[in-house]
Specification:
Radius of gyration: 17 Å
Distance between the termini: 35 Å
Number of domains: 2
Low-confidence stretches: none
Structural class: alpha/beta
Order of helices and strands: EHEHEHEHEHHHHHH
Largest sheet: 5 strands, parallel
CATH architecture of the largest domain: 3-Layer(aba) Sandwich
Length: about 210
C-alpha cells in the first residue's frame, strides 16, 4: 500500500482527496496536514510514500515547504496539487524537487495515476507542461523576463500584478514590508519595468494570473 500524506489548508479539499484515495485499493491516507509546518512535522514522525501538497497555504507556502521536505528527505516524492495554472508555478516547483504537478481541476483518475507514478520514483506532468519543459531544455539561452526572477521575486511580482499591496504581500509571505519592497525593486529591474501596472500587464499577457 502506498501511504499518502494530504497537505491542504481547506478541510473540504482534504475530505475530497481522502475519499479519492480511500476508493483506491493500493493507496491509503497516512495522515493530513493543514499547513506546511504540520506537513514537515508529520514526515519527521511518520512514514509516508508520497506527499500530496497544496501550493497556497498559510504560514509556510507550498514552495518553501517543498524545499524543506526535499532538504530533509530527498527521496520522498512530492506531488503538487494546485489551483494555479501550470504556467504560473509548475516549472519552478519541478526545479525545486517536485515529482509532479496537477491542477485541482484534474479528474480523480488522473490524480490516482499521478500518485502511483511518483510513488515509483517517476515524474508526472501534463502533455502541455511536458512540451514546455522540452522547450526549456532546448532553450538557446534567451529566457522570458519572468524566468530570470528568483522564486521570491517571482512570487512578489505575481501577487503585486494581481493587485496586492506590499503590506498584503508581506502578510501572505510572512516577511517584512521592507523585504517585499526589496524583492519588488529587484524584479522590476530584472524585467526592465518601472511600475506595478507593468507587472499586471505582463502577467495578464503571459497568462500568469490564472
Amino acid at each position: 500500500m502506498t501511504k499518502v500524506l494530504i497537505a491542504d489548508d481547506h478541510a473540504i479539499v482534504r475530505a475530497g482527496l481522502r475519499q479519492i484515495v480511500a476508493d483506491t485499493d493500493d493507496l491509503v491516507v497516512a495522515g493530513e496536514a493543514a499547513n506546511g509546518y504540520e506537513a514537515i512535522e508529520f514526515t519527521r514522525r511518520n512514514p509516508c510514500d508520497v506527499v500530496l501538497l497544496d501550493i497556497a497555504m498559510p504560514g509556510k507556502d507550498g514552495l518553501n515547504t517543498l524545499k524543506e521536505l526535499k532538504a530533509e528527505k530527498p527521496q520522498l516524492p512530492v506531488l503538487i496539487l494546485s489551483m494555479y495554472p501550470e504556467e504560473q508555478y509548475a516549472v519552478r516547483l519541478l526545479k525545486a524537487g517536485a515529482s509532479g504537478y496537477l491542477t485541482k481541476e484534474s479528474a480523480p483518475q488522473e490524480l490516482v495515476a499521478a500518485i502511483r507514478k511518483v510513488a515509483k520514483k517517476g515524474r508526472y506532468v501534463s502533455a502541455a507542461l511536458a512540451e514546455k519543459l522540452a522547450f526549456l531544455l532546448d532553450d538557446d539561452g534567451t529566457r522570458q523576463p519572468h524566468e530570470r526572477l528568483s522564486d521570491r521575486e517571482y512570487q512578489v511580482m505575481v501577487m503585486m500584478a494581481s493587485g496586492k499591496t506590499a503590506s498584503e504581500v508581506a502578510e501572505v509571505m510572512c516577511l517584512s514590508v521592507k523585504t517585499i519592497s526589496t524583492y519588488r525593486v529587484r524584479a522590476l529591474r530584472k524585467m526592465g519595468m518601472r511600475t506595478n501596472a507593468e507587472f499586471a500587464f505582463y502577467a495578464m499577457k503571459e497568462g500568469l494570473l490564472g
